[in-house]
Amino acid sequence: MFVFWVWSETGWGTNEKLIISILAHRNAAQRSLIRSVYAATYNEDLLKALDKELSSDFERAVMLWTLDPPERDAYLAKESTKMFTKNNWVLVEIACTRPALELIKVKQAYQARYKKSIEEDVAQHTSGDLRKLLLPLVSTFRYEGDDVNMMLARSEAKILHEKVSEKSYSDDDFIRILTTRSKAQLGATLNHYNNEYGNAINKNLKEESDDNDYMKLLRAVITCLTYPEKHFEKVLRLSINKMGTDEWGLTRVVTTRTEVDMERIKEEYQRRNSIPLDRAIAKDTSGDYEDMLVALLGHGDA
Amino acid sequence: MGMGVDENALISTLGKSQKEHRKLFRKASKSFFVEDEERAFEKCHDHFVRHLKLEFSRFNTAVVMWAMHPWERDARLVKKALKKGEEAYNLIVEVSCTRSAEDLLGARKAYHSLFDQSMEEDIASHVHGPQRKLLVGLVSAYRYEGNKVKDDSAKSDAKILAEAVASSGEEAVEKDEVVRILTTRSKLHLQHLYKHFNEIKGSDLLGGVSKSSLLNEALICLLKPALYFSKILDASLNKDADKTTKKWLTRVFVTRADHSDEMNEIKEEYNNLYGETLAQRIQEKIKGNYRDFLLTLLSKSD
């Protein structure tokens, strides 16, 4: 591999540009191949080698990008359950926006790396309403067909509406519907909710005056299940504008969505902020970190 | 009366018999046939017809079940149990607690394929009451199956479990911590927990700690499956066993026969508990093709 030779010949230290140019435009299969050839040639995991040379945001972006998607999600999930880096959004994103079979691979990667299951960690590190919501969310293996039962959509929209009216936001049935129904079924249910009761459910939920962590998470769950690019746009916007506490949101969204739905997210971002995402990122970041992110955003065009 | 039908004997006696012989047979078999003197014929008792149908179908059912993929088999078992209602929920516990993580996941995949919905959504929407959390949690589990375990973590879980089953108020089966421990922890972790529990309480965790039979069953299935299967096999082979209980024999044999190690453990446990081998008991109590089929399944693990 010519690229490799160039890389190894020119050494590491000052070659962030080379790292970006090699990795940013490769797809998951290619990155995986690069990693295994590197390991076979130099007897060391590429990520370990990178770890010694790079720093902060750039390092994180490269590392996350280089990891296999299931490993990446496992790493992010583990990080999000640790006390000081606690970030339940990440769990919601992983549980709600990855396809069901992909989520299984994440669980396998998690078990292989951390010698326990993601469920037991999530369960152990949460309690009360948060656990009630997050544990089934992370455990479920959703049906992914397009079949929709309209009668069920109507009856479950009614249940959701009742619970919202009663302010029973952690009611068993309320959570059951959100955490077990297929995305297609849920979509139909929430459409019916909107049509029948005049407002989208998240609008009603936002009216709750006690807008605590649980409520924010609940709304995120609904958005991620029905309109994920909207959620990711929000994370990007808050991170770029340095609002909120999700400081690594920018890195996370770009590295995890580039091969999935980045085009839709870009459109959503432009629609909402009247400025293209790469321009916003360029304004807010600099140096190698900026170059890496911009290269990833242009990944599809390479 | 044992189980199954001695088809060969039937062929040679009834099959070859003349009309008059059969009439004599009917007149002589007062428990199966009743004289309708007015209309001059020997009527079959309803229960005899049902009984015969059932006995003839044992071999049939066993073969059909055996031919199916294990995942489909388990998915259908769960569906049937769900339809039957509360009295059959022990089947759901059995399937979810005694299968490996991959086999349970497989059953969930098969469920998607067969019933166009996920196992957990079906159970969640049909089970009400305190058992819902436990059942949904058990079928949603994808447990770590490696050999790493944190003994102090198991010890602290044991304390939590001990407190939960002792305290009054909310039933143990509903308590969040009980559900968390039973539905997310690895089986190895639970083995360590079992040891600590017995030391802490001075009593056996498997001695029926809870009023909830489902909770007790989950514990024995997770910790001592060979014991569990031996007991239900014995119940099914008992002369007083009812129609439903007798069916357990087919289910256990067909679902466990592929797993030689487990089957051998069951055979050993059965022998220890009841003083005779499973093979001997089958020989005594079962007839015909059904018997031969069961013995063949049994010998797979020899």
Automatic annotation (TrEMBL), chain A:
InterPro entries: Annexin, Annexin_repeat, Annexin_repeat_CS, Annexin_sf, AnnexinD_plant. GO terms for biological process: response to cold; response to heat; response to salt stress; response to water deprivation. Ca(2+) binds at G11, G13, E53, I240, K242, G244, A282, D284, T285, E290. Pfam families: Annexin. This is Annexin. A pair of annexin repeats may form one binding site for calcium and phospholipid. One of its GO terms (molecular function) is calcium ion binding. The keyword Acetylation applies. Signal peptide: none annotated. Belongs to the annexin family. Belongs to the annexin (TC 1.A.31.1) family. The gene is ANNAT2. It comes from Arabidopsis thaliana. Keywords: Acetylation, Annexin, Calcium, Calcium/phospholipid-binding, Metal-binding, Repeat.
TrEMBL record, chain B:
The keyword Coiled coil does not apply. GO terms for biological process: response to cold; response to heat; response to salt stress; response to water deprivation. It comes from the Eukaryota. PROSITE patterns: ANNEXIN_2. GO terms for molecular function: calcium ion binding; calcium-dependent phospholipid binding. Keywords: Annexin, Calcium, Calcium/phospholipid-binding, Metal-binding, Repeat. InterPro entries: Annexin (IPR001464), Annexin_repeat (IPR018502), Annexin_sf (IPR037104). Belongs to the annexin (TC 1.A.31.1) family. This is Annexin 4.
